[in-house]
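<instruction>
Derive structure tokens from the sequence
<entry> Chain with its tokenised backbone below:
===
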Amino acid sequence: MRYRRAFLLPLFALALAGQTTQQTAPDARAIIRQAFSRQEDFFEQARNYTYIRTQETRKLDSSGKVTETESTVHEVTILYGEPYRKLIKKDGRALDEKEAAKEQRKMDDEI
């Protein structure tokens, strides 16, 4: 008799827990609304996030000595949920006015 009670008590507790969970389960639409709201918050924050990315390429000869070095520096920002790279320096030098205007036009076209 004790074994039956010991066995039935956990089953009864599980049944009550299942009913409680079903009663307090949130509406699917509410979950989706909340997810979209958080996603919009993320994209809003991402728009304010910009960083600098430096890349250096070294070309080597057959003995492993560096023969040529190229470097680029990009300003990376988030546009429409995707990273956008705008060239700001090339080979350690800032872009001249013509190159900078070209990069700005490319970014404006993307926007």
